[in-house]
Amino acid sequence: MHCTGGVNGSGAVRMGGSQPDRDGPHRRGVDTPIRGVRVFSAWKCHRGSTEQGFVYLGDHKIPITHPRVRTRNGAEELPLATYHAFQYATQTTQTVRERMLFELVSQQQIPADAALESAVETAGPSKSTVSRRFIQAMQQALDQFLRRRIDDQTWVVLMIDGIRVGGHLVVVALGIDATGHKRILGMSEGTTENSTVVKHLLTDLVDRGLAFPGGELAVIDGTKALAKGLHEVFGPVLRIQRCQIHKQRNVLDEVAESAKHSVQLKLRRAYQEPETPKTLASLEKLAQELAHDYPPAAASLREGLAKTLAVHQLGLSGTLRQSLANTNV
Known about the structure:
Number of domains: 3
Distance between the termini: 61 Å
Shape: elongated
Number of helices: 13
Mean pLDDT: 79
Number of strands: 12
Helix content: 40-55%
Radius of gyration: 31 Å
Strand content: 15-25%
Order of helices and strands: EEEEEEEHHHHHEEEHEHEHHHHHH
């Protein structure tokens, strides 16, 4: 007799065992590990009484009666390997996550299991159980995603920006590899203005394998804490491109509504100039114009202006320059 189990033809779960196989692999004294549970040969144990328990079948937690097994001398109760294996809802949790991601919302979970319910007379999971399993599955998936190694590619561009997810601010790091493919590398709750959050995110990326030995490009939203953190972690060899869209927004926030459209057109035309000197000249001319009526706008434009032109200085042009000039992805 071994610790086995299954489902009979009527759909009822049974936990039982076979007769001793004197010539099989479980002869005298053979212990075989299965999912961390010892499996004893029939020569070492005998069936005792039964007790109430449960197993997971699909999304259902099903009550069953299973046998109890003890050693021959009665000194130790032995675990049933198959019973132990069916007591974990790991597969159920993964199934709930997949259904929710494919827009099978929690209220529809029970009808989705109609076929199983017709075969097994037990109630399906409640809405709260489905929600709890979904949160658990997503947390596990997120933890695994954020711990994965990222040294399997050669990264040439690092983009970092703060985004709002629900009621939370999250700093997201996105990498572009040598073939042009983008991948989220990491994230941390907080803002790019928070130096502690920034340093923690960058250090974590390095610990998981991110490296820029050749002085690659980092595209950021323009906050000083982020630029400082990048230089502290990767050194001054890393080129920093401040987001041109963020720069334009900051300037436009300082001008009257009636002037926004014309100022925005001048900013766009200046950044579209093919040569860096022409771009600088156009932007400086605009700053001089703004200084008369909108001094804060002129100061905002001149602040960190050179760092918005890294893609120009690298000689990039066309769609590539446009894509790497801002953090919008």
